[in-house]
Amino acid sequence: MADVNLPVPIRTYADGDGLVQIKIVDPTTIAQVSEVDTDKNLHVEMHGNQPGGADIVVALDSSGRVRTIVEGSTAGTPTFDYKDATGIAAGSPDNHDYVVPLAQTFSLKQVYASASGKMKIQVETIIGLTTTTLVVGFGTSANPNVVIDFDPAYAQVPASGTVRVIATNKDNQPQDLYTTIIGELA
Question: Can you give the pTM of this predicted structure?
């Protein structure tokens, strides 16, 4: 069978036992091979940092599908909480609080902040009576956007917890401060 013209080259072929084998050639990975055997079990060979590879058997569901989750994602609900704090006086802070709903967990992925002048951004979590500062960032007139990425596995906030972004106007005149808290609820 001919190669398929995709961004990642894929070659498929059938062997003598009626198995279909797909080999994915990726410049960042030594090799990735998968095949479905006659019992409809998917065998995946992953090399990565292990030159010998490891055979992993993946079961198909009742409809013959392989259920997958892209690494770094979950089955949660995407959440974008935006705030526009207008006319914040020079040297003054403004709090942007996102309170996690009951029976939910929030995975913090990113905080985005912007202003026309200088600003300071401090990201905290408040769980019960404990406040933890996660990170501080600064924006200037030349670089007015602050983007702070988090590994959601390490930035989990339980129900009734709070993600707080303290945006402080570090300019010499009032300005608007824009913040967005981005994550997933599960």
Answer: 0.63
Residue 40's nearest CA partner among 68, 22, 15, 19 is: 19
Question: pLDDT digits over 99-116, tens only?
Answer: 999 999 999 999 999 999
d(CA 94, CA 46): 49
Provide the domain limits for residue 133: 77-185
Burial class (CB in 10 A: 0-12, 13-18, 19+), 21: middle
Apex CA 25: angle with CA 21 and CA 27, to 5°?
165
Q: How far is CA 47 from CA 25, 36, 38, 50, 71, in A?
A: 11, 18, 24, 5, 17
- Secondary structure of residue 176 in the 3-state scheme: strand
pLDDT digits (tens, 9 = 90+) for 10-22: 444 444 444 444 4
Tell me if 157 is assigned to some domain. Answer: yes
